[in-house]
Write the structure tokens for this entry.
Amino acid sequence: MIEVEGAGWCQTDNHIVEGMWEAYAPVDLPQTLGHENAGTVVEAGEEVTTVEEGDQVICHPLMTCGQCRRCRLGDDMHCENAQFPGLTTDGGFAEYLLTNERAAIELDTLDPVDIAPHADAGITAYHAAKKAVDELVPGSYAVVIGIGGLGHIGLQAVDSMSAARTIAVDVKDAALDLAEECGADYTVSWIR
Ligand SMILES: [Zn+2]
Ligand SMILES: [Zn+2]
């Protein structure tokens, strides 16, 4: 059980409110949203070994079982018994969140409030950047289209994980300013 200190609002939350996820995961109302969570462990089950009471953790949004075929193949995202707080169970827009051991990753010095949105927005952008970096040898360029909630993190991930020079593209000037702050080598306004 986690005492929630940081909980990010995701575009997916808007989609859940609008009913867009109904076909994939019918929501049983009332439902507490929030899948980008971080906080402090206040209680741990007796078989939990990786975290203990008092540890600060970030919570992976998917609670996986670790025992099904997909989990054993390392393909946790397709776990047959997965739960997703904020969609299939109550999420983190509350004082406390119930999650499982595999989803609780101990934080070292990072502040749970700062880091919470990275539970989803961060890992999503990082995942895309990680796929790209093998191709991004010195002398190459990476174009990041859209410097929003995910894009501004993806831009920084590509910048720090590869030798490529980065080109940030967006329609909004504010987003291009953010891109510059995030280390973009070039910015391009899509519509001028
Ligand atoms: Zn999300
Ligand atoms: Zn599983």
Q: What stands out?
A: Residues 124-189 form a domain with the Rossmann fold fold (CATH 3.40.50.720). Residues 121-133 form the longest helix (13 residues). The chain has a mean pLDDT of 95. The first strand starts at residue 2 and ends at 8.
